[in-house]
Design a protein that fits this description.
The chain is α+β, with helices and mostly antiparallel strands and 178 residues long. It has 2 domains: 114 residues, Alpha-Beta Plaits; 48 residues, Roll (SH3 type barrels), CATH 2.30.30. The chain has 3 helices and 11 strands, in the order E-H-E-E-E-E-H-E-H-E-E-E-E-E. The strands form 3 sheets. Strands 10-9-8-7-11 form a 5-stranded antiparallel sheet, with no helix packed on it. The protein has a 4-stranded antiparallel sheet with strand order 2-5-1-6, covered by helices on one side. Strand 9 and strand 10 form a beta hairpin. The longest helix has 14 residues. The protein is elongated and about 70 Å long.
Length: 178
């Protein structure tokens, strides 16, 4: 069997995630899991300060393109090429010629840059623990941790305000263990 390599698909702009989902479900429904392994939409986090509010959103690194890891065969090439939203392979000269894969170092660089953007926080708290809020609107108040999101570095804390429990979401570094 040939090597599994990364190829670049050209898609309609704005349809990258839909193409990724279509490709993954088609690979499964058509029994191509041994040829089509994964599809990736290269994205990176972009942080923006708007009116004092820090907003982080994912931006597509290559709008209109999806990476697919696959073993090139006539069948897998046909399945990928005919996936809804795919307009073609990058590096294919048309007229039925198979496309050129990404060089391994190119694929590694893209995948590594995506992983670098997916920072995960190591939050040393547990649900049910009591914390003191260090700053912000609830500064000085104590509350109980109700939820922890390691990927975003956020904790939800239930505080007692005017004899009512109110839940607020805070950055992990804004709370201290009591």
């Amino acid at each position: 069997m040939a090597d599994k390599l990364w190829y670049v698909l050209h898609t309609y702009s704005g349809y990258e995630n839909r193409v990724k989902e279509n490709l993954e479900s088609r690979a499964q429904s058509m029994g191509m899991e041994d040829y089509i392994f994964q599809a990736v939409v290269p994205e990176e986090e972009e942080t923006e300060n708007k009116n004092g509010q820090i907003k982080t959103e994912l931006k597509k690194t290559f709008p209109g393109y999806v990476l697919v890891e696959m073993v090139m065969s006539d069948e897998s090439w046909f399945v990928v090429r005919n996936t809804p939203g795919v307009t073609g392979f990058v590096g294919s000269h048309g007229a039925g010629s198979k496309p050129a894969p990404l060089l391994p170092e190119e694929a590694d660089n893209i995948l590594r840059s995506m992983k670098a953007n997916q920072t995960s926080y190591d939050i040393d708290l547990e649900v049910g623990e009591f914390v003191k809020i260090a700053n912000g609107a609830f500064a000085g108040m104590e509350g109980k941790v109700t939820d922890i999101n390691n990927e975003q570095g956020k904790v939800k804390v239930e505080v007692n305000m005017f004899d009512r429990l109110t839940e607020t979401e805070l950055d992990y570094d804004k709370v201290q263990r009591v």
